[in-house]
Amino acid sequence: MDPIALLVILAVIVAVAAVVSAPLRHRREDTRDERGDRLEELEARKEAKYREIRDAEMDFKTGKLSEEDHKLLDRQLRAEAMEVLRAIDEESQ
Amino acid sequence: MATVGRALLILALVVAIYGVLASLYGARRGRPEWVVSGRRSVYAVAALCTGAFGILEFAFLRSDFQFATVASHSSTTTPTFYKAAAAWSSQEGSLMLWVWLLSLWSSLVLFLTRRSLRRVAPYATAVLLGFAAFFAALLIFLETPFGLNAVVPAEGNGLNPLLRHPSMMIHPPMLYSGYTLFAIPFAFAVGALITRQVGAADWIRATRRFALAAWFFLGIGILLGARWSYAELGWGGYWAWDPVENASLLPWLTGTAFLHSIMIQEKRGMLKIWNVSLVLATGILSILGTFLVRSGILDSIHAFGASTLGVPFVIFIAILIAGSIGLVVWRREQLRSENRLDSLLSREAIFLMNNLVLVAMAFVVFWGTFWPLIAEALTGNRRALGPPWFDRYTVPLTLVLVLLSGIGPVIAWRRATASNARRNFLLPTAMALTLGVVLALSGAAGRPLALAMFVVGGFVVASVGQEFWRGVVVRRAMTGESPPGALVSLVARNRRRYGGYLVHVGMAVLFIGVAASTAFNDARDIRLVTGSTTKVGDYAFTYREPTSKISVTSNGRLEKITLGAVMQVRKNGRLVSTLRPSRSYFPSRDDSLGPLGRFFEGEATSEIGLKAGLRGDLWAAMTPDKNALLPQIEEGDRVFAAAAGKLTPQVEAQLLGQALRGIAKSYVANPPPATFRLITSPLVTWIWLGAIIVFLGALIAIWPGGGDRVRQRTQARYAARVAKDLGRPARGPKVAAASRSAAGGDART
């Protein structure tokens, strides 16, 4: 085998091994936990709920929802958003 | 260099396998350092694949014929532009491209989610690395791109002439980007199923943009393939229901369904089984697409087949299918819907119908594509289903799909009332019906399916136009912006919604083009002598004169002989265009043929004559009568055979050039009749324009950046409103500011 090729391959193996094994050599505590996961999920739910409120408002303003329907839907969506916010509060405490 | 390339691939395989194990161990044992190490394995695989692919590309660019794949797919005379693309014209090069793209997209998504999706990401990492390991193993054990020739040839075979088209430079990377990007939502769905997180919104949020990007790239790839077929293959069409075309369409259809139905899961927590099944099916269909184009199990114009890959691919796909079904069944309890459909008159219901139509189309395409194998298994005879079979089912389904894409934007989420629906549908319906009546009176009534497509297409354009108009009016009323300013800010504030609407318009325009160009085209296959005229539709095509050309490469080698025609096209006696179709003959490398005969027995490509316009295309392809040249070719070959061994290579090349020029001149001086395929086809350009609108809309929906800031501001306002309802102080400066604003009654959209 070409010695230069051999050197290149060895250098690549060493570099890859160093990069991949670094986390095992320098262990760091994971700051995230189950609560963090739950919060992350709730944040995503909250965002989706806000998007839904915004879509309903846009639907109302562009005439796809009557005022009455919009009020009803908006109240329902805000109640759902409040549930999510309460859950976030509980997880955060 | 080949040794280094092969070593990089072996190392990539080893690292991928290590990464799978490290990720799974870290996830199961709660050891984050192993999870991080697994993620870093993906980055390392990407770097190693980049190195290996770089070596292969470099070999192609410098025409290093020591590499067997370079010698068989390129030559010193191949233009540099095509040398770079020649890498993926080969079986091994295209698999290398696949794994390289997969490693890059995998690295990107895992880098973006490195601080989130703690439970799902390790399993997704394992799945993505499993894919990479499979393809790396194929490249090492079955189809190596780094195989060497024992004897280095002085010249390579060159790139298949059919692939010398600009679309072919971009078409495969686009298709493969689509396929590999669909692996990402697949992998995260598997992770979500394993960790019981499938109902969670976070993994969907993290991978949705990748699913949209996959859809975008796969769509571009499909369209470029259609354009290549139209401009290069000489049959005059852009879609033939070829198995390989169909293979790319399958994941695109299920991916389209997923992009719609996932919104229902995000908003309502519904359709979880459906969504996860769609995303898993899309991932598997992407692998199936690669398998079809690479295995050659079905007859296709894309003849890249090599049976060595069949067995491993079938085993791999079987594992994916069995694993996916097993996971869905295992987690069926977590996949229950949180809500029910409120009303059949709602956007959710329309999305559901759209999903059913798309999946039905995917089933039809799947059945038709695999029918030859099914028929062979059942009856022993392999029979293919042609375009009429596909059209019988896909045309009505497409009509319904386009109609739904017009209904969706004007109907509200959750529940729409009949009076609102009437108000929203009135104008688009009236416009579409008026268009239908006008077109029916203009002669379109004879083609009811095409007329129906024009009507539903018109309905889509009108309904989306109405949506943009109303949105702009609302924005202007709130902000006092100019109409263009209001339009830009309307779209910027909700890119997903308005980008999606634009996609619907583009699809409608595209299908109007398809309907018009298939229902109202005139085609004629005819033999013509010079000076004769034939009528095609309203146009008179006259074969004015023959042409011929000998092309020589940069190093003086005879590359091809081109025989063509000058065709004048007149309408009502007025000259509207001059077309120059031709056919190029590339020499065969079969030494048993004579030096002149070789030029007419190798690959041949059609260069079409095309006059494209918004109203319609004039299209011409020609095939010269080679038989008329046979006596001269055979005579020349006899002379060369008699002089064999007496001539130096230089003299032989010189005489060969003279002989070919003689044949070319005689063709022009005494042209035999030529066979022409002549087509006049309306609105073909609308297909390409529609596609551009589709991709523009998709780009708007995908593009990261300012939209996030707008979203944050808007969300801060809603957070403030909800916080007010909760009777608690608003958090954060943005929310606090929005709270003060909301208190003043300013809740802008």
Helix content of chain B: 55-70%
Mean pLDDT of chain A: 84
Order of helices and strands of chain A: HHH
What is the helical fraction of chain A, as a range of percent?
over 70%
* Low-confidence parts of chain A: none
Rg value of chain B: 29 Å
Number of domains of chain B: 5
Shape of chain A: elongated
- Number of beta-strand segments of chain A: 0
The number of distinct structural domains of chain A comes to 1
The separation of the N and C termini of chain B measures 59 Å
Q: Helical element count of chain B?
A: 23
Strand content of chain B: 5-15%
Oligomer state of the chains in this structure: heterodimer
Low-confidence stretches of chain B: 741-749
Tertiary shape of chain B: globular
Mean pLDDT of chain B: 88
Q: Would you kindly provide a written description of the structure presented here, covering whatever features stand out?
A:
The complex is a heterodimer of chains A (93) and B (749). Chain A is mainly α and 93 residues long. Chain A has three helices and no strands. By secondary structure, chain B is α+β, with helices and mostly antiparallel strands. Chain B contains 23 helices and ten strands. Chain B is globular and about 95 Å long. The model of chain B is unreliable at 741-749 (pLDDT under 50). The chains are: A mainly alpha (93), B alpha+beta (749). The interface between A and B is large, with 51 and 64 residues.
